[in-house]
Amino acid sequence: MFARLLIANRGEIAVRIIRACHALGIAAIAVYSEADRRALHVRLADEALPIGPAPASESYLRIEAIIEAALRSGAQAIHPGYGFLAERATFARACRDAGLTFVGPPPEAIEALGDKIAARRLALAAGVPIAPGYHGADQSDETLAREAERIGFPLLIKASAGGGGRGMRIVQRADDLPAAVESARREARAAFGDDTIFLEKLLARPRHIEVQILADSHGNYVYLFERECSIQRRHQKIVEESPSPVLTARQREMIGEAAVRLARAAGYVNAGTAEFLYDETDGSFAFLEVNTRLQVEHPVTEAVTGIDLVQLQIAIAGGARLPFRQDDVQQRGHAIEVRLCAEDPVTFLPTGGRLTRFDLPGDIRCDTGVETGDEVTLYYDSLLAKLIVHADDRAAAIARLRAALDACAVEGVTTNLPLLRAIVAHPAFIAGETTTDFLTTHTIPQHLPVPAPIPDEALLAASVADVQLLAHGRAATRDPWSALGPWRMLRADMPLHYRDGENERSVRITEDTGEWRVEIDGRVYVTGVLEAHPDRLTLRMADGRIERFAMARDGEAQVVEWRGQRFHLVRATLEIGRLGSAGHSHSRAGLEAPMPGTIARILVREGDRVAAHQPLVVLEAMKMEHIVAAPHDGIVLRLPYAIGALVAKGATLVELEEG
């Protein structure tokens, strides 16, 4: 067994591996980017070494930096976790060349299975059924168009080196194919450095079922049954369970044996997952891909089998034999995992900020890489935590999961908690009707409860605090009026706009003779400031009421606590340069970046007339593309950024005049 092991990852999975190492008596060595200097995995590790700046391409994807850190720390092995370099054969080979043990399959197996085209060919040779499609070497547009017609629409475009939905596009008709191919190639090239794609017939309403496999270096192979992962957004899983609600005992055996045949054909060693699409109409299944690494959803398998997969990974990498045979592995009870992510529950766009509160239930398994007070960065995956429940049967597991989600409290960052709660309470989920189109069929994101509107008092407090901050470039002092200086003399309107979820609230504030006149969506309030500090604000209302607010700043947002409630007010625009400008046209729209990213494509030119919903700019963020479209007909007035430019969240990407 190893004495020291380096973890080439971050976040939740790095914490998971650290705990497995400590259980085995192994010293865990962490690596971190500049953005993760104070991250939880760094705090828990026995030693931590820096590997570069925040962008993954300059830190967690730098093979030479990670190998150097491992050698410098005296580690004998490297665990890649999942994501980043976990499925890179070049990384596994670099570890071997440096005399380090790679906790995963040999590079030859990664190459045989990690490339999805090569994996489809190997599956055919091993007698594993695959979906109809095209996986040829000819990547010309003409060949792809011809093969698409042969396969028939709708179909899927997939990146050969891809995963997590990156480089994947659904094409409903032939006219959409060229643009989809171009977009898929571009996204695959950015995410994986390889723009090779293949085509696959799109099944109408399949289930996504995967099989956990384990193999040692002595020729022993087992499957640890299946996980159903059909509920997804953007082709990425958010709910996983074991066993599948639909498989019979015979089907479970057939799909498990198919996964083992494929692993044997590839000379696989260590943990891996074979993924399949299952067609309920005829009970058939078709091979999708093999993930040559540990899966995010591995805890549900651990729950129903009682087997610690990470500890076994490390033992197998150290030369140990599997401690059990296929007949020894049993499924017990039912387990469900949900992924708690820092993202908008309707648009699925990632969010960031500081976690002012992060409370998870203490009576279930929660795998997380963050704590209260930690910063959630947009540089990496949006996963905050995984909640895993286990019970005697599926109904009891669902009941336990609903209680666990209700017990979660996360503040400071927008999360998908409302979506998760709606999914597990939905009758179709309770009935086990979980096909891959679950979210769109039941339109769950669109039907989420609308949060109660933020009270005007909270908006009033935020706007008063903001104008004082803008006046002197810092938080208010004990005596705000003596500090106002030239701002007090301006006596001009201060138009502010705040986002309250998907709604935008308008505030116009004027200071006059020691009081503030604040207009919120047409309603007028007059208030005086009795006390102002960076962390609290006391206002006297016109009717004599005294209102006290706890204040905090979270980037460009104000966090306001009032009467036991907390509100996170994101400031949408600050038109300081146009104060009191009667000539300001309200028909102009500044289309903003929903998150930090890189301008991948600009589809229009200044002066172009565009139609409502027409794509204008393509923003690449989190290695995926996001289209910025026109909200109405209009004329493009200005395009402030060029292709390749890095932009911040909220940056104006297009200035558009309505008309």
From TrEMBL:
List each copy of the ATP-grasp domain by range. 120-318
Recorded hits in Gene3D superfamilies, A to Z, give:
2.40.50.100, 3.30.700.40, ATP-grasp fold, B domain
Q: Which EC class, in a word?
A: ligase
Per UniProt, the keywords (alphabetical) are: ATP-binding, Biotin, Ligase, Nucleotide-binding, Transit peptide
> Under which EC number(s) is this enzyme classified?
6.3.4.14
Asked if the record carries the keyword DNA-binding, the reply is no
Q: Which CDD domains match?
A: biotinyl_domain (cd06850)
So which domain of life are we looking at?
Answer: Bacteria
Query: Domain Lipoyl-binding: where?
Result: 579-657
What is known about its subunit structure?
A: The biotin-dependent acyl-CoA carboxylase complex is composed of AccA1, which contains the biotin carboxylase (BC) and biotin carboxyl carrier protein (BCCP) domains, and AccD1, which contains the carboxyl transferase (CT) domain. The AccA1/AccD1 complex forms a dodecamer.
NCBIfam families given in the database record: PRK08591.1
Q: What is this protein called?
A: Biotin-dependent 3-methylcrotonyl-coenzyme A carboxylase alpha1 subunit
Q: What is the lineage of its organism?
A: Bacteria, Bacillati, Chloroflexota, Chloroflexia, Chloroflexales
